[in-house]
Amino acid sequence: MTPSTRRSPITRRQLLGFGLGTAAAGLLAGCAVPGSTNVNKAALIPAASGGETVQLTYWAWLKDLQKVCDVWNAEHPRIQVTANWIPGGNSGGYQKMYSALAAGGGPDIGQVELRQIPEFMLANGLTDLARYGAKDFESKYDEAAWAQVSFVDGIYGIPQDTGPMGFYYQTAILEQAGSEPPTTWDEWKVLAEKVRKTGKQNYLEVFPVADASPFAAYAQQAGARWFRIDGDEWVVDMTDDKTMMVAEFFDGCIDEGLVDTSAGAYTPGWYAACASGRIAAVTSASWGDALIESVQGGEGKWKVAPMQTWGDTGFGSSAIGGSTAAVLANAKHPAEALEFITWMTTSKEGIDAMIKYCGIGWSPAVDYIGEQREQPSKWFSGQNYNEEVFVPASKEQNVDWSWSPVTQSAFTSLQNQFRRKLTGGLKLTDAVELAQREIVQSFKDKGLSVRTAR
């Protein structure tokens, strides 16, 4: 794989576009924001004095996060952390954070997805952790994960979990089709044709028109770069050759009936189809293993292979999902918050606790994936797939990929247009072009300067 030129980090001024800070922030998702005060231009908040006990709050949608905090609390009496559960980000969690920030409150730490970091930056919602020494920890994290929180003027979150991708498959179905796991997408298509011939309801995989995340991941793997900065202007480039190649590929797969478009992965219909042998595989993130283990009767029948590639272009893997532990703008103890979240995401104790109690996604630490993930898996046919597949995959990412301040509306536009593939026969290539127009307008609606690349 030939990596592209490393992206130029984005400054917060560029995020705002010609210094439109307050006006642009006020348009963010139609919700309240902290206002014009930028905590990162204020004086540093000193660490607490030696005899003072610091109380931190952490808002997240992770289950049993308090148990992780309890591991820390037992060994660090000076810094005590309390976890509060909130709904998943776009299910109400982000709105809750923004409302709290606007009122001058909120937690010290919040779970913020990697793709949402630019939107929170636009709203003056995050503390620049570089001011508190976060860059000293860079070598402890995967390069791709760190790139998603790094901007020229700071570090706006600590990677908490990521989602490098692989190819999960049912061994018996591939054997019936007479094939090994595919190494390229072209081989994947040939395998999809073979699986279709094993039964009229049988498919290799699904292609979800109602979820643009997989498509974005495939484009990311091919080497696409949808959003970048040129001076003080955002450049949207979703009709590049790499993205169009991916769209044309799946246009053909849908037109030839090679993929199931009736339901996305991990839906009730998908589980039923997998259990009955009608769906053979899923190209998904590392965190998909826990979900696949819910396939009835599937133990010992699945394995994992490296993600198939786009041949001579792009990267060895891609990613779906991933989140950060971000210190929010109104945090009273940012230095202590940074101490806790770096422990949680790089120490053996923290990583093991996150896996045990929270079922956290892939650890972004470079030197430890968690004791549980170092062991062979009985469910996945005795395979030590985390070390065999996902350790290499985490190092084969498109580090030039950046999200933007309109990520959520971008996904909504793509999904709305993709649905027209089924309802009206719209080509995916045309759907991407139409979505790009809407996305450009979303930038303008936020008061941001923007243009298309072509």
UniProtKB/TrEMBL annotation:
Under which name does UniProt file this protein?
Multiple sugar transport system substrate-binding protein
Q: Which InterPro entries match?
A: Bact_solute-bd_prot1, SBP, TAT_signal
Q: Is Ribonucleoprotein among the key words of this record?
A: no
Gene3D superfamilies in the record = Periplasmic binding protein-like II
Which keywords belong to this entry? Cell membrane, Lipoprotein, Membrane, Palmitate, Signal, Sugar transport, Transport
Q: Which organism encodes this protein?
A: Curtobacterium luteum
